[in-house]
Write a structure and sequence with these properties.
It is a single chain. The protein is α+β, with helices and mostly antiparallel strands. The protein has one domain: Ribulose 1,5 Bisphosphate Carboxylase/Oxygenase. Helices cover 36% and strands 18% of the residues. The protein has helices at 9-12, 25-37, 73-94, 115-119, and strands at 21-23, 42-50, 56-57, 101-108. A four-stranded antiparallel β-sheet has the order 1-4-2-3. A hairpin with a 5-residue loop joins strand 2 (42-50) and strand 3. Helix 2 (25-37) packs antiparallel against helix 3 (73-94). The chain is globular and about 45 Å long.
Length: 121
Amino acid sequence: MSQLGAMPPALAAQSISRREIVLPLAAALECIDFCECHRIPIYGWEGWVLTIDGRVGHGSAPQGTVCLADWPLEDAAALCRRTMVSDAEAWQTDNPGTTDKLHFCITIGDPPESPRSRSGN
């Protein structure tokens, strides 16, 4: 399953990538909340920029986090929320008048198996 497949359809539909979770700030924060609520590991994020002509890349986007795979889920979620908001504010300040749109590529682990799926039902 792609990482997008782990997300609710309404969130997945906002991604600017067909394979990865790449969302604008509000949706990215909602994604972090969803992952934390559903115990889906959060490995980190990196910034992506969508230009007015539809190109996508890292360009002026914030670097994001280090790999958080070994972090407790609650700590990883809190760090992502805090740094996404602060880095988005800094990016806006550093890029006044830009037509580019900042997005966040969120990397997650596999959702935990439900007891039902483990028992084969």
